[in-house]
Amino acid sequence: MARSEASRPPDGQALRADSKGGNTLPNYTLSQFSVLGELGAGAFGVVQKVVHQDTGHIFAMKIMDKEQVVQRGLQVQLKREVLTQLKVKHINLVRLHYYFEEETRIYCLLEFADRGQLFAYLRAEGILPEPRAASLFSDTASGLAYLHSLRIVHRDLKPENILLFGEELRAKLCDFGWCVELTEKEATRNTFCGTLEYIAPEMLMGDPHDDGIDLWALGVLLFEMLLARSPFAGRAKKETIDDICAARFELPPGSMSRGPEQLVRGLLARERVARTPLREVLRHPWVAAADRSDSGAATQISEGRQLTSKVPEVSASASQGGTSCQQSAYVGWQPTTSAAEDGLALLDTSASSGLNTASDDGVPFRVCEVVSDGPRPKVRSRRSPSSVGGGAIT
């Protein structure tokens, strides 16, 4: 059921939700932002560094071309990304402040990561000192634990999808396009997605998966931070796949202390049930010593479900057209009404919009297409760190 015209904000304005879920005064319009530069580009559009003219606040504006999204059949994936980022609120997850849309484009206003991608940082630094790796690992595990407390599985954890903020290099997860929410009815999923070197054995074997695939990827991440290479860097794709399916990797003697070694081995267990649970990961002395949260990440996991387990309410947003940010032809706001009733206009799945309603398992299997073999198998989603401030564009 669509919202009445009277309930919509004026063209070009965005409403923010107050603490009680109601609307407050109109807030952002696209015309209020000036472009400072380009952070990255991809098949769907660009990520720009923008400044709010009145406040001077810096953001990353992710701009996506609707036609490209539809042509590649990724509208369900994009809808999932927007809904998830509107729903989650955690210091280790990149915040989506607002979204806007016009007839041909979708705009997402995100936190600006002033220190770029973890991927670029690892390429520049090589092997990380254990204290630094512990801090980044703790941040990532904390954000992941919050998602899991909401029964959300990220499914594409990798350095490219972790952004860094401030002098302290706080890590935050981004790019929620492949995430999925598990339910009692659907406690596992079957979609083949992710990045080859980070994909868990059960997914490569074609078995159903749950949040255990994120635990596996977390183990790969820790290994890569401390050894500057993947644990499954085979000479060819088949060798890499065989090693992953067998959970076959080597830890050179003396390459890391006992703490991270325990975590790597515990997370890279072949069987999902044998992997170290996130609660235990966060309570591990090596991780707990690096925890930067106020009260400890491990104690906050259960609170996440209580605070934000309700599905976010998202208002309908009629596409108004328009050709430039100077025109008042854009709309977009934070959650205000039932997503189940209204949905998102920018991702309307009605027949008239030309968008399909593919289920989670109907999303095209695109990200694991191997481009070429080499010392480290190159996968399309394993891209260079060109998008440094607001998440990569596929």
TrEMBL record:
Monomer. Pfam families: Pkinase. Residues 296-309, 316-325 have a biased composition (Polar residues). Residues 1-20, 293-325, 372-394 are annotated as: Disordered. GO terms for molecular function: ATP binding; protein serine/threonine kinase activity. InterPro entries: Aur-like, Kinase-like_dom_sf, Prot_kinase_dom, Protein_kinase_ATP_BS, Ser/Thr_kinase_AS. There is a cross-link at K158 (Glycyl lysine isopeptide (Lys-Gly) (interchain with G-Cter in SUMO2)). This is Protein kinase domain-containing protein. Keywords: ATP-binding, Kinase, Nucleotide-binding, Serine/threonine-protein kinase, Transferase. The keyword Nucleotide-binding applies. Residues 33-287 form the Protein kinase domain. The active site is at D156 (proton acceptor). The keyword Kinase applies. SMART domains: S_TKc. ATP binds at K62, E111, F112, A113, E160, N161, D175. Belongs to the protein kinase superfamily.
